[in-house]
Fold:
Amino acid sequence: MTATAERTRNRLVHELTGHGRLTEAWRAAFAAVPRHLFLPRFFRQTPDRSRYEAVDANDPGALELIYSDRVLPTQLDGDDARWDESRRHGPIDGVPTCSSTQPALMAVMLDALDVTDGHRVLEVGTGTGYNAALLAHRLGSPLVTTVDIDAGLVRRARRSLAAVGYAPTVAATDGAAGHPGNAPYDRIIAACSVPQVPAGWLAQTRPGGVILTSLHREIGGGLLLRLTVDETGAASGHLLDDSARSCRCAPAPPCEPRRSSAPLPRPPGTGTRPTYPARWPTTARRGPRWWRCTCRVWPASTSTARTARCSGSSTRMVRGRTTTSPPAWWNRAAHGGCGPRWRTSTAGGARMANPTARTSV
Structure:
Protein backbone atom coordinates (compact mmCIF):
# COMPACT_ATOMS: atom_id res chain seq x y z
CA MET A 1 0.00 0.00 0.00
CA THR A 2 2.87 2.38 0.74
CA ALA A 3 4.19 2.33 -2.83
CA THR A 4 0.70 2.74 -4.27
CA ALA A 5 -0.05 5.60 -1.89
CA GLU A 6 3.15 7.38 -2.84
CA ARG A 7 2.42 6.95 -6.52
CA THR A 8 -1.13 8.27 -6.25
CA ARG A 9 0.03 11.12 -4.01
CA ASN A 10 2.66 12.19 -6.53
CA ARG A 11 0.05 12.04 -9.28
CA LEU A 12 -2.18 14.42 -7.31
CA VAL A 13 0.74 16.80 -6.70
CA HIS A 14 1.53 16.78 -10.42
CA GLU A 15 -2.13 17.46 -11.26
CA LEU A 16 -2.43 20.37 -8.82
CA THR A 17 0.85 21.85 -10.04
CA GLY A 18 -0.12 21.49 -13.68
CA HIS A 19 -3.42 23.29 -13.08
CA GLY A 20 -1.63 26.16 -11.39
CA ARG A 21 -3.17 25.50 -7.97
CA LEU A 22 -0.10 24.25 -6.12
CA THR A 23 2.89 26.60 -5.91
CA GLU A 24 6.51 25.65 -5.37
CA ALA A 25 6.35 26.92 -1.76
CA TRP A 26 3.85 24.17 -0.85
CA ARG A 27 4.77 21.42 -3.30
CA ALA A 28 7.15 19.68 -0.87
CA ALA A 29 4.53 19.58 1.88
CA PHE A 30 1.84 18.07 -0.36
CA ALA A 31 4.36 15.54 -1.66
CA ALA A 32 5.51 14.53 1.82
CA VAL A 33 2.33 14.43 3.95
CA PRO A 34 0.33 11.19 3.47
CA ARG A 35 -3.33 12.21 3.22
CA HIS A 36 -4.49 8.60 3.47
CA LEU A 37 -3.23 8.34 7.07
CA PHE A 38 -5.62 11.15 8.00
CA LEU A 39 -8.53 9.45 6.26
CA PRO A 40 -8.83 5.91 7.65
CA ARG A 41 -12.54 6.16 6.90
CA PHE A 42 -14.76 8.64 5.09
CA PHE A 43 -17.86 8.95 2.92
CA ARG A 44 -18.38 9.23 -0.81
CA GLN A 45 -21.54 10.34 -2.54
CA THR A 46 -23.63 7.89 -4.50
CA PRO A 47 -23.61 8.36 -8.31
CA ASP A 48 -26.84 10.36 -8.17
CA ARG A 49 -25.31 12.53 -5.38
CA SER A 50 -28.33 11.99 -3.15
CA ARG A 51 -26.82 9.84 -0.35
CA TYR A 52 -23.52 8.92 1.28
CA GLU A 53 -21.70 5.60 1.37
CA ALA A 54 -19.09 4.66 4.01
CA VAL A 55 -15.58 3.93 2.70
CA ASP A 56 -12.65 2.35 4.54
CA ALA A 57 -9.13 3.34 3.48
CA ASN A 58 -8.39 -0.33 2.76
CA ASP A 59 -11.34 -0.75 0.39
CA PRO A 60 -10.54 -1.30 -3.29
CA GLY A 61 -10.23 2.07 -5.00
CA ALA A 62 -10.08 4.02 -1.74
CA LEU A 63 -6.58 5.39 -2.36
CA GLU A 64 -7.66 6.76 -5.73
CA LEU A 65 -10.49 8.61 -3.98
CA ILE A 66 -8.23 9.90 -1.21
CA TYR A 67 -5.67 11.23 -3.68
CA SER A 68 -8.22 12.77 -6.01
CA ASP A 69 -9.00 16.48 -6.05
CA ARG A 70 -12.29 16.24 -4.22
CA VAL A 71 -13.90 16.95 -0.88
CA LEU A 72 -14.26 13.84 1.29
CA PRO A 73 -16.84 14.02 4.11
CA THR A 74 -15.69 12.28 7.28
CA GLN A 75 -18.72 12.90 9.50
CA LEU A 76 -22.48 13.23 8.94
CA ASP A 77 -24.90 15.07 11.21
CA GLY A 78 -22.23 15.50 13.88
CA ASP A 79 -22.50 11.79 14.67
CA ASP A 80 -19.53 9.45 14.14
CA ALA A 81 -21.88 6.45 14.41
CA ARG A 82 -23.38 7.32 11.02
CA TRP A 83 -20.32 5.80 9.32
CA ASP A 84 -20.92 2.45 11.05
CA GLU A 85 -24.61 2.68 10.14
CA SER A 86 -23.75 3.14 6.47
CA ARG A 87 -21.23 0.33 6.64
CA ARG A 88 -23.97 -2.03 7.87
CA HIS A 89 -26.92 -0.85 5.82
CA GLY A 90 -25.49 0.87 2.75
CA PRO A 91 -25.89 4.50 1.56
CA ILE A 92 -27.63 6.86 3.96
CA ASP A 93 -28.98 10.39 4.03
CA GLY A 94 -27.19 13.06 6.02
CA VAL A 95 -25.49 16.44 6.14
CA PRO A 96 -21.67 16.57 6.22
CA THR A 97 -20.44 18.23 9.43
CA CYS A 98 -16.74 17.51 8.89
CA SER A 99 -14.87 17.01 5.65
CA SER A 100 -11.35 16.79 4.31
CA THR A 101 -11.17 19.90 2.12
CA GLN A 102 -10.60 19.66 -1.63
CA PRO A 103 -6.79 19.61 -2.07
CA ALA A 104 -6.88 22.33 -4.76
CA LEU A 105 -8.70 24.69 -2.39
CA MET A 106 -6.28 23.84 0.42
CA ALA A 107 -3.37 24.69 -1.87
CA VAL A 108 -4.97 28.00 -2.91
CA MET A 109 -5.72 29.02 0.68
CA LEU A 110 -2.27 28.08 1.95
CA ASP A 111 -0.66 30.05 -0.86
CA ALA A 112 -2.91 33.06 -0.13
CA LEU A 113 -1.87 32.83 3.52
CA ASP A 114 1.63 33.89 2.34
CA VAL A 115 3.58 32.40 5.25
CA THR A 116 7.32 32.76 5.71
CA ASP A 117 9.74 30.96 8.02
CA GLY A 118 9.12 31.86 11.64
CA HIS A 119 5.45 32.74 11.23
CA ARG A 120 3.12 31.54 13.96
CA VAL A 121 -0.17 30.19 12.58
CA LEU A 122 -3.56 29.41 14.09
CA GLU A 123 -5.83 27.04 12.17
CA VAL A 124 -9.52 27.06 13.09
CA GLY A 125 -11.21 23.78 12.21
CA THR A 126 -8.80 20.91 12.76
CA GLY A 127 -10.95 18.29 11.05
CA THR A 128 -8.78 15.31 10.14
CA GLY A 129 -5.54 17.15 10.93
CA TYR A 130 -4.23 16.95 7.36
CA ASN A 131 -4.06 20.72 6.82
CA ALA A 132 -2.33 21.15 10.18
CA ALA A 133 0.23 18.57 9.03
CA LEU A 134 0.90 20.59 5.86
CA LEU A 135 1.44 23.70 7.98
CA ALA A 136 3.67 21.82 10.43
CA HIS A 137 5.77 20.44 7.57
CA ARG A 138 6.24 23.94 6.14
CA LEU A 139 6.79 25.88 9.38
CA GLY A 140 7.61 23.34 12.08
CA SER A 141 5.22 21.96 14.69
CA PRO A 142 6.01 24.50 17.47
CA LEU A 143 4.69 27.35 15.29
CA VAL A 144 1.34 25.71 14.47
CA THR A 145 -1.81 25.72 16.61
CA THR A 146 -5.04 24.08 15.49
CA VAL A 147 -8.41 24.08 17.27
CA ASP A 148 -11.75 22.34 16.76
CA ILE A 149 -14.93 22.32 18.82
CA ASP A 150 -15.39 18.55 18.36
CA ALA A 151 -13.30 16.75 21.01
CA GLY A 152 -13.56 13.44 19.16
CA LEU A 153 -12.14 14.95 15.99
CA VAL A 154 -9.34 16.55 17.99
CA ARG A 155 -8.35 13.22 19.58
CA ARG A 156 -8.21 11.46 16.21
CA ALA A 157 -6.34 14.32 14.57
CA ARG A 158 -3.78 14.38 17.36
CA ARG A 159 -3.16 10.64 16.92
CA SER A 160 -2.86 10.96 13.14
CA LEU A 161 -0.46 13.88 13.43
CA ALA A 162 1.72 11.99 15.91
CA ALA A 163 1.72 8.92 13.63
CA VAL A 164 3.37 10.90 10.83
CA GLY A 165 5.79 12.77 13.10
CA TYR A 166 4.09 16.13 13.72
CA ALA A 167 3.25 17.64 17.10
CA PRO A 168 1.50 21.01 16.74
CA THR A 169 -0.71 22.33 19.53
CA VAL A 170 -4.12 20.66 19.07
CA ALA A 171 -6.95 21.88 21.29
CA ALA A 172 -10.66 21.17 21.65
CA THR A 173 -12.27 24.59 21.95
CA ASP A 174 -14.67 26.95 20.22
CA GLY A 175 -12.76 28.28 17.22
CA ALA A 176 -14.51 31.65 17.46
CA ALA A 177 -12.46 32.30 20.61
CA GLY A 178 -9.20 31.41 18.87
CA HIS A 179 -6.45 30.14 21.16
CA PRO A 180 -5.10 32.95 23.35
CA GLY A 181 -2.45 30.74 24.92
CA ASN A 182 -0.23 30.80 21.81
CA ALA A 183 -1.19 34.27 20.56
CA PRO A 184 -0.30 36.56 18.94
CA TYR A 185 -0.36 34.93 15.52
CA ASP A 186 1.10 36.08 12.24
CA ARG A 187 -1.57 34.18 10.33
CA ILE A 188 -5.02 32.79 11.10
CA ILE A 189 -6.64 30.40 8.62
CA ALA A 190 -10.14 29.01 9.02
CA ALA A 191 -10.73 25.58 7.51
CA CYS A 192 -14.44 26.11 8.14
CA SER A 193 -16.75 28.91 6.98
CA VAL A 194 -18.09 31.57 9.33
CA PRO A 195 -21.03 33.99 9.18
CA GLN A 196 -18.84 36.73 10.67
CA VAL A 197 -15.17 37.24 11.50
CA PRO A 198 -14.92 36.82 15.29
CA ALA A 199 -13.46 39.72 17.22
CA GLY A 200 -11.14 37.28 19.00
CA TRP A 201 -9.33 36.58 15.74
CA LEU A 202 -8.64 40.28 15.26
CA ALA A 203 -7.38 40.59 18.83
CA GLN A 204 -5.03 37.60 18.50
CA THR A 205 -3.45 38.66 15.20
CA ARG A 206 -0.26 40.72 15.16
CA PRO A 207 -0.31 44.08 13.36
CA GLY A 208 0.42 43.23 9.75
CA GLY A 209 -0.88 39.70 10.25
CA VAL A 210 -3.38 38.01 7.95
CA ILE A 211 -6.76 36.36 8.54
CA LEU A 212 -8.04 34.04 5.80
CA THR A 213 -11.52 32.56 5.98
CA SER A 214 -14.61 31.83 3.92
CA LEU A 215 -17.97 33.43 4.58
CA HIS A 216 -21.11 31.32 4.49
CA ARG A 217 -24.72 31.83 3.55
CA GLU A 218 -27.70 29.59 4.24
CA ILE A 219 -26.63 27.22 1.46
CA GLY A 220 -23.10 26.79 2.78
CA GLY A 221 -19.62 28.16 2.22
CA GLY A 222 -19.09 30.94 -0.27
CA LEU A 223 -16.45 33.59 -0.73
CA LEU A 224 -12.85 33.60 0.47
CA LEU A 225 -11.96 36.70 2.48
CA ARG A 226 -8.36 37.81 3.16
CA LEU A 227 -7.90 40.51 5.78
CA THR A 228 -4.76 42.26 7.06
CA VAL A 229 -4.88 43.54 10.63
CA ASP A 230 -3.39 46.97 11.40
CA GLU A 231 -2.00 48.56 14.57
CA THR A 232 -5.45 49.69 15.75
CA GLY A 233 -6.97 46.21 15.62
CA ALA A 234 -8.90 47.03 12.46
CA ALA A 235 -8.60 44.81 9.40
CA SER A 236 -8.89 45.53 5.70
CA GLY A 237 -8.69 43.25 2.71
CA HIS A 238 -10.45 41.74 -0.26
CA LEU A 239 -12.32 38.74 -1.53
CA LEU A 240 -10.33 36.20 -3.52
CA ASP A 241 -11.27 34.81 -6.92
CA ASP A 242 -11.76 31.28 -5.59
CA SER A 243 -14.91 30.19 -3.80
CA ALA A 244 -14.93 27.82 -0.83
CA ARG A 245 -17.50 25.19 0.06
CA SER A 246 -16.48 24.52 3.64
CA CYS A 247 -18.44 23.10 6.54
CA ARG A 248 -19.66 25.81 8.86
CA CYS A 249 -17.90 26.55 12.10
CA ALA A 250 -20.12 25.62 15.03
CA PRO A 251 -21.65 27.15 16.96
CA ALA A 252 -22.33 30.18 14.78
CA PRO A 253 -22.46 33.38 16.87
CA PRO A 254 -25.85 35.09 16.78
CA CYS A 255 -26.30 38.55 15.33
CA GLU A 256 -29.41 40.73 15.16
CA PRO A 257 -28.67 43.80 13.01
CA ARG A 258 -30.54 47.06 13.49
CA ARG A 259 -30.97 50.10 11.28
CA SER A 260 -30.35 53.72 12.18
CA SER A 261 -30.02 57.08 10.47
CA ALA A 262 -26.92 57.99 12.47
CA PRO A 263 -23.64 58.53 10.55
CA LEU A 264 -21.14 55.72 10.23
CA PRO A 265 -18.60 56.17 13.06
CA ARG A 266 -14.92 56.73 12.36
CA PRO A 267 -12.54 53.81 12.89
CA PRO A 268 -10.41 54.12 16.04
CA GLY A 269 -7.44 56.43 15.69
CA THR A 270 -8.47 57.99 12.37
CA GLY A 271 -9.61 61.49 11.48
CA THR A 272 -11.81 60.70 8.51
CA ARG A 273 -14.57 58.30 7.72
CA PRO A 274 -13.43 55.35 5.57
CA THR A 275 -14.47 54.65 2.00
CA TYR A 276 -15.45 51.23 0.74
CA PRO A 277 -14.80 50.71 -2.98
CA ALA A 278 -16.44 47.79 -4.77
CA ARG A 279 -15.31 47.07 -8.35
CA TRP A 280 -17.36 45.13 -10.86
CA PRO A 281 -16.69 44.25 -14.52
CA THR A 282 -18.70 46.18 -17.10
CA THR A 283 -20.44 43.01 -18.26
CA ALA A 284 -21.50 39.76 -16.62
CA ARG A 285 -19.80 37.56 -19.20
CA ARG A 286 -16.63 37.07 -17.17
CA GLY A 287 -18.57 35.40 -14.41
CA PRO A 288 -18.23 35.50 -10.61
CA ARG A 289 -14.50 34.64 -10.58
CA TRP A 290 -13.83 38.21 -11.74
CA TRP A 291 -15.76 39.74 -8.89
CA ARG A 292 -13.83 41.93 -6.45
CA CYS A 293 -14.68 43.72 -3.27
CA THR A 294 -12.44 45.75 -0.99
CA CYS A 295 -13.59 45.96 2.59
CA ARG A 296 -12.62 47.21 6.02
CA VAL A 297 -13.56 45.62 9.33
CA TRP A 298 -13.08 46.83 12.89
CA PRO A 299 -14.52 45.74 16.24
CA ALA A 300 -18.01 47.08 16.87
CA SER A 301 -18.73 48.85 20.13
CA THR A 302 -22.02 50.68 19.48
CA SER A 303 -25.21 50.12 17.53
CA THR A 304 -25.11 53.14 15.20
CA ALA A 305 -25.07 52.84 11.44
CA ARG A 306 -26.20 54.56 8.28
CA THR A 307 -27.95 53.48 5.12
CA ALA A 308 -26.50 54.57 1.78
CA ARG A 309 -26.86 53.68 -1.89
CA CYS A 310 -24.19 53.27 -4.53
CA SER A 311 -24.85 52.47 -8.18
CA GLY A 312 -23.44 49.27 -9.62
CA SER A 313 -22.79 47.23 -6.50
CA SER A 314 -24.67 44.81 -4.29
CA THR A 315 -22.01 44.91 -1.58
CA ARG A 316 -23.24 45.79 1.89
CA MET A 317 -20.73 47.39 4.19
CA VAL A 318 -21.41 47.00 7.89
CA ARG A 319 -19.57 48.41 10.87
CA GLY A 320 -17.78 45.46 12.36
CA ARG A 321 -18.68 43.23 9.42
CA THR A 322 -18.88 43.18 5.64
CA THR A 323 -21.89 41.71 3.88
CA THR A 324 -21.79 40.95 0.18
CA SER A 325 -24.06 39.31 -2.34
CA PRO A 326 -22.84 35.94 -3.65
CA PRO A 327 -22.17 35.11 -7.32
CA ALA A 328 -25.77 33.91 -7.71
CA TRP A 329 -26.79 37.56 -8.01
CA TRP A 330 -24.03 38.34 -10.52
CA ASN A 331 -26.25 39.45 -13.42
CA ARG A 332 -28.37 41.68 -11.25
CA ALA A 333 -25.39 43.35 -9.63
CA ALA A 334 -23.41 43.78 -12.85
CA HIS A 335 -26.27 45.72 -14.43
CA GLY A 336 -26.94 48.23 -11.69
CA GLY A 337 -28.09 45.88 -8.95
CA CYS A 338 -29.00 47.16 -5.53
CA GLY A 339 -26.92 49.59 -3.57
CA PRO A 340 -25.13 48.72 -0.34
CA ARG A 341 -26.95 49.03 2.94
CA TRP A 342 -24.70 49.82 5.90
CA ARG A 343 -25.96 48.24 9.08
CA THR A 344 -24.55 47.28 12.43
CA SER A 345 -25.04 45.62 15.77
CA THR A 346 -22.89 45.14 18.84
CA ALA A 347 -21.43 41.93 17.37
CA GLY A 348 -18.19 42.19 15.40
CA GLY A 349 -16.87 40.46 12.33
CA ALA A 350 -17.68 39.99 8.65
CA ARG A 351 -21.03 38.52 7.65
CA MET A 352 -22.80 37.40 4.48
CA ALA A 353 -26.33 38.56 3.68
CA ASN A 354 -29.00 37.99 1.05
CA PRO A 355 -29.65 41.30 -0.74
CA THR A 356 -32.95 40.04 -2.13
CA ALA A 357 -34.48 39.17 1.23
CA ARG A 358 -32.59 42.06 2.90
CA THR A 359 -32.03 39.98 6.00
CA SER A 360 -28.87 38.57 7.53
CA VAL A 361 -28.39 34.82 7.46
